[in-house]
Amino acid sequence: MKNKIKSNLWLYFSLVVFALILVSASGIALILLIATYFDIIPKEGGTVYLIIFIALFIAIISSGISSIVGKKFLQPIIELRKSMKRVAQGDFSVQIEEKEAAGEVQELYSDFNLMVRELSGIETLRNDFISNVSHEFKTPIATIQGYIQLLQNKNITEEERDSYYKRIFEGNQQLATLTDNILKLTKLETQSIGYEEKDFRLDEQIREVLLFLQPKWEKMNVNLNIQLDKIIYSGSEELLYQVWLNLFENAIKYNKENGDIVVNLQDDKWNILVEVSDAGIGIEERNYGKIFEKFYQEDNSRKTSGNGLGLSLAQKIVELHQGTIGVKSKKELGTTFTITLPKQISSSL
What we know:
Layout: H1 2-37, H2 47-88, H3 103-151, H4 158-190, E1 198-201, H5 202-212, H6 214-219, E2 223-228, E3 232-235, H7 237-253, E4 260-267, E5 271-278, H8 310-320, E6 324-330, E7 334-342
Parallel strand pairs: 2-4
Antiparallel strand pairs: 1-3, 4-5, 5-7, 6-7
Helix pairs in contact: 1-2, 3-4, 4-8, 5-7, 7-8
């Protein structure tokens, strides 16, 4: 599009210059004919008058045409420059009127307006991100500070002291997890990173994650129903470990006492399917798309631990493997996440 605009503008300027010369030459010829015909210019010694008259005429015509050219072609550029300066100063509300501009300039204005709207959206997301990060950091920090103040009291019991230390440790772990997730998510979003692809046993990896989380699901007396096909998958072992870790932690955290968790790993003709189901609190259907947004939590009361980054991180990793992640849920009955991974990943990664 840029080449088209550039070439057409040069064509317009060339036509204007050609028209300027043609009009000037035709005007001069016409004036000379008329002046000679009516004896306006003396035949003897009239050369000086003719030159002066022609110079004045050309100056007037050139000034008029230059004014028209400047208004038609240079004014839109000036308007665009002023608007770009406002955007550079952080004003993303700028929009240039497109209807009054010429065809190619109108396209340029349209692209500029689209760019500003996109920048405005990015700025809004950035501000929301900073606000959410500040809130997420503020909560555990305030918790740690509160319990440190309580520990200054020399009259507390040993049991209370141990409880306070435990709360401080949990707050520290929450901060560490939040920082780690933010760094991972930022890396996935801002860098066109690939990954070290290797063959590994996907079913063994899922078992490894479940064993790692055993203290948590045993504490809630959760029943596991695991059906895993033996599958060798080629991908990032490190990144996919994070996907299963986030999904299983959510299945435990939002489950009920004595609830069930079902994990299925199936190998079909073209894809690998992983289903993780729980019998927990469930998700409202209208919030299906929101749960993959950064910092979103279905439980707005924040009674459950977490920072709302796990599913967003999992989605990015699955998409990096050219897969998909979907959710189905019923309130108070449970949730099922389905991950589809293609067996053959495009070499463009």
